[in-house]
Amino acid sequence: MIPLEFADKLFRSALLSLAGNRAAEAFALKYGLRLGAHKFVAGETLTEALEKIQRLNDKGIAATLDHLGEGVTRISEADSFREEYSRLLIGIRESKADCNVSLKPTQMGLAIDPGRAYDNIKQIVKEARSMRNFVRIDMEDSAYTDDTINIVRRLHAEGYLNVGTVIQAYLFRTEKDIRRLSLEKVNLRLVKGAYKEPKTLAFARMEDVNANFREIIAARLRSGIYTGVATHDEAIIDWVKSFVKEQTTPYSSFEFQMLYGIRTQLQETLAKEGYRVRCYVPYGRMWYPYFVRRLAERPANVLFILKNMIKH
Question: Which among 55, 205, 221, 241 is most buried, taking Cβ atoms within 10 Å?
């Protein structure tokens, strides 16, 4: 019999390999939203996404809005994403949504022209600051970890404090990054990690990832610097609740973060219990890579899609 942990790795690896499969992407983009991708993606337009955010806000749940797109190949594409984020920020302000924004550095051109990418990101952060909003620079795979952290540190050094990033618990380097960014008082979202990484860079066993996740959460909560704990793992959530009670950590110093369409009832329950909760709301036409990562995280997500395919 194949060990459960090994089978889970094979499952995740097989699904993640589909992220670059053009035939699978073409099929998904043609039928995906109708067959169930709408569960994880708030729509293809900003209007659709803002409507979903209003429903979340009505339930006491804040949001972070992400216009999906990564790995652009032309700088003109990156400029288009920057322009969309300008419209996105205006849309948040006009709708009076309780919402900040998330973006990926590669969609701003990091893999093509790092200097231009920095300028694009800085413009968005500057516009957000003028609207009293916050920008989360998402973390992608390990090839971009250093560049992403350096962008945030540079922006902070230039006085843009309304920007933070994401730290992934499955990387060996994480503890060092946490220490440095905490000293610089950078707002962080802590996650387990969802990319396929080599054994030389990341923990292979989930129990090691979970142990490191708890350690970095504890370090951040003790620091008093605002932190987003991003997880759907109820064991981790219960551990955080016990930890903050024991440490008398104020609820105002952290928030739970979860993804749109996943553990919706749990999000509502936590909000009713008085915890700050923020939902990551993605939208846009380039949703396929994001969608594949959500499927790879849990077999139940795949079953949901298969059921919808059978229905149709």
Answer: 221
In a domain, 120, yes or no: yes
Q: Within a domain: residue 153?
A: yes
In this prediction the pTM is 0.84
Terminal Cα-to-Cα distance of the chain (whole angstroms): 35
Q: What are phi and psi of 190, to 5 degrees?
A: -100, 130
Q: Judge whether 122 is annotated as a binding position.
A: no
Q: Is 138 a catalytic residue?
A: yes
Determine if residue 126 is labeled as part of a ligand binding site.
Answer: no
For 168-202, the pLDDT digits (tens) are 999 999 999 999 999 999 999 999 987 788 899 99
Question: Pick the catalytic residue: 12, 66, 138, 177?
Answer: 138
CATH classification of the domain holding 162: 3.20.20.220
pLDDT tens, residue by residue, 253-271: 999 999 998 899 999 999 9
